[in-house]
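2024-03-11 09:14:02 DEBUG pipeline.ingest accepted 1 chain
2024-03-11 09:14:02 DEBUG pipeline.ingest length=473
2024-03-11 09:14:03 DEBUG pipeline.predict start
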Amino acid sequence: KCDEIGLLVMEELPGWQHIGNDAWQELSIKSVQDMIERDFNHPSIVMWGVRINESMDSDEFYTKTNNLAHKLDKTRPTFGVRFLAKSNLLEDVYTYNDFTYRGSNLIIANPDDIAPKNAPYMITEHNGHMFPTKSFDNSRRQTEFCLRHANVINEFYKNDRISGCLGWCMSDYNTHKDFGSGDGVCYHGVSDIFRRPKPAAYIYASQSDKYPVLFISSDMHTGDYDGAVIGDVYAFTNCDFVRLYKNNEFVKDFYPSNFSLKNMPHPPILIDDFIGELIEKNEKFSKKDALKIKNLLIAFSKKSFNLSLIQKLKMFLLMKKYKLDFQDATNLYGKYIGNWGNKLIEYRIEGYINGSCETTVTKGKVFSPRLKIEFDSKNLQETDTYDMTGVYITLVDEYNNKLPYAHNIVTVITDEKLAVIGSNQKALSGGTTGFYLKTKGLCGQSKLKVSVSDIAEYEDMIDINTSNSYRHL
């Protein structure tokens, strides 16, 4: 598949940190030979990894693996993934797992402090265990996870000394005690264990120009935020700018230039104003006073009654000028900041490329959840043994947004032609889950039914062809 789509591959021999005795090392050397002889003709492979991932230096051992790789393939360079600075470089490229960033410190290490001065250099892991994030974590943690990835990518793009930068890691996975979260799952991925994207996946997707990408970092539900204040929201997008509407009223256009990550091909866009000129448009205040009131409401949302003396004086003078009492001020805050009251709030964010609206995201109250089902394949083919397909289930709202706090039970029902591998019931995790189905030696159309508690149902058909050379009993 990587050959087909042009995804570059760095393939390395198996292992992590541990280096064994002579017999163990002979097996590793054989692994290098097996790897290269097996995959030599895959054009997607650009480098061979000839060092045990994150292991200590072992020059005699790694001289053998490196020399063997060059003997078997004179065209591709070699690498060895390290967590060590100034390690002995025997391979062609110094590859380093850089976990420097903790959210507010130095983002990536100076390559010249890690590798020999003129050595080709790549970052092969970043973030990962520094900020594990589950698909059902709240919007604030999800957003921080996104911005940590974005900050490292931004630093990489402005440093010509670094040849490439790979994040750790693509997907959550089952693991051992060291990286599990109490449930045996490592939550370092930008997608979940079924490869369904977390918000951070859109940091990467938005750097491409292949198709329009627009993901909004918040579900815009005030109950998810301290003090019921949403605060800053980010659009992860490859659009030129985004346009915000609140209940179909235009609020403001937002551009990448209003945010500090300027080195990425497509920086996140900061959405930090949900009022725009709505106060001026809908209330009785002058344009100048509407702006003052807007700024005071935003300041109050951040500081509550701890406003500065000047801000308190401005508020007093405005209330006196327009004969506003405390309830009037409270109503303004609820209408434009807290979104309280009987009126439902719907936000629409449009993404524009070359002046044309190419994609839209809508956020609002959830009334009618529905199931979104994706398949690896709906056309299965039995030959010498059974065929399989993955079924990926997401509970979404009316606007196709995933419901990240949904943990309902999903039930999958098949007919006699298909079998569920494992239990046919699972709980949603962060609004998603998955099943794997296998054929049973019978051809024709098979009916699949998926239901989520009493919320939603879905039915579909899967085509099965068989050569009849295999029959599962």
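2024-03-11 09:14:41 DEBUG pipeline.report The longest helix spans residues 139-157.
2024-03-11 09:14:41 DEBUG pipeline.predict end
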